[in-house]
Each structure stands twice: as structure tokens, then as C-alpha cells.
């Protein structure tokens, strides 16, 4: 109890003539405000900037929007920022790999009862297809496909067609 009294005395002494009750009723103002950065307004001009940046660079909508927000809506700066991010995070490497042909791979065959599943999983080189993890992937894909087919078969077996004739 004495600690509470000393705290009251300290508050009155620090604030001067303000009574303690009025100090406790005042809501404290926040000292810090958080700002996540400039936001683009939903205006037509910002949408046009976003579409123009996306057309010029070919990067995703999300990345273009982030670039415009970071650069305050400046199209040239946003393009520069996007290219730097692409080099830093390897976006261009993924784009280069997109056109490569997958000529090798494995075919998985799984039979259970009257149901047979045939899956083909492709890769770029024969070294990958010899890998144990790749072979396990083909097995898992075949098994998943089999389970999907059996669930469809079960759904179709519960379906019954009724012929209703008018008499």
C-alpha cells in the first residue's frame, strides 16, 4: 500500500498542479506510429501504371505492384527495382528454364483389380530419372492417381439411373 501512495506522490510532484485523478483519466497519446510505406490509390492512373509496368517487364502482378509501391509510383524507378530484384532472387533464371524440353523421364504402371493407371513423369536428363527420389515420385503419382480413380469409381457405383415413364 505504501508503494501506491509513493507513486501518487511522485505523480503529483512530477506534474505540478494536476490532481492525480485527472492524470489517470487522460488517455495517453501513442508515441510511435507505424507506416508500412506508400500505398497506391485505387485510381485509374495507378491501375494504368501497373498494367504498363507489367506489359513492359513481364513480371507478375504482385511484383509489379510491390515495385510501384516501393518507388512511389515512378515507372522508371519501378522497372529498375524489378530488374534488381529479379537478379537478386533469380526470377530471370526461372524464366530461362521455362522453355527447356523435358525429353527424359519414367512411366509408372499400377494395376489393382480391374483398374490400371499409367502415368508419365518427365525430366530434362536421364540422370534425374535414375535417381531414387524421382522414382519414388513416379510411384507416388501413380498411387495418387489410382486412389483418385477408385474414388470416382465408387461415386459412379452409387449413382443409379431411374427410368420414369408416364402412364
Automatic annotation (TrEMBL):
GO biological process, one term: mitochondrial translational elongation
Localization per record: Mitochondrion
Main location (coarse class): mitochondrion
Any GO MF annotation of the entry: translation elongation factor activity
CDD domains documented for this protein: UBA_EF-Ts
Any one GO cellular component localisation term in the record: mitochondrion
Highest taxon listed in the record's lineage: Eukaryota
Pfam families referenced in this protein's UniProt entry, alphabetically: EF-Ts_N, EF_TS
Residues in Translation elongation factor EFTs/EF1B dimerisation domain copies: 117-157
UniProt keywords, alphabetically: Elongation factor, Mitochondrion, Protein biosynthesis
Coiled coil: none
SUPFAM superfamilies per UniProt: Elongation factor Ts (EF-Ts), dimerisation domain (SSF54713), UBA-like (SSF46934)
Classification via InterPro entries: EF-Ts_dimer_sf, Transl_elong_EFTs/EF1B, Transl_elong_EFTs/EF1B_dimer, Transl_elong_Ts_CS, UBA-like_sf
HAMAP family for the chain: EF_Ts
Role description: Associates with the EF-Tu.GDP complex and induces the exchange of GDP to GTP. It remains bound to the aminoacyl-tRNA.EF-Tu.GTP complex up to the GTP hydrolysis stage on the ribosome.
Family listed: Belongs to the EF-Ts family.
Name of protein: Elongation factor Ts, mitochondrial
Organism in which the protein naturally occurs: Rhinopithecus roxellana (Golden snub-nosed monkey)
Amino acid at each position: 500500500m505504501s508503494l501506491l501512495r509513493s507513486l501518487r506522490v511522485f505523480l503529483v510532484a512530477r506534474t505540478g498542479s494536476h490532481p492525480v485523478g485527472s492524470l489517470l483519466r487522460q488517455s495517453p497519446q501513442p508515441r510511435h506510429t507505424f507506416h508500412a510505406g506508400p500505398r497506391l490509390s485505387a485510381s485509374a492512373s495507378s491501375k494504368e501504371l501497373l498494367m504498363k509496368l507489367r506489359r513492359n517487364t513481364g513480371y507478375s502482378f504482385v511484383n509489379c505492384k510491390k515495385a510501384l509501391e516501393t518507388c512511389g509510383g515512378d515507372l522508371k524507378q519501378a522497372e529498375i527495382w524489378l530488374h534488381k530484384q529479379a537478379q537478386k532472387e533469380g526470377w530471370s533464371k526461372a524464366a530461362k528454364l521455362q522453355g527447356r524440353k523435358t525429353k527424359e523421364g519414367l512411366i509408372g504402371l499400377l494395376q489393382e483389380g480391374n483398374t490400371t493407371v499409367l502415368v508419365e513423369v518427365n525430366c530434362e536428363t536421364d540422370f534425374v530419372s535414375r535417381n531414387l527420389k524421382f522414382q519414388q515420385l513416379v510411384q507416388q503419382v501413380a498411387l495418387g492417381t489410382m486412389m483418385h480413380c477408385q474414388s470416382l469409381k465408387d461415386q459412379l457405383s452409387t449413382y443409379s439411373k431411374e427410368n420414369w415413364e408416364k402412364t
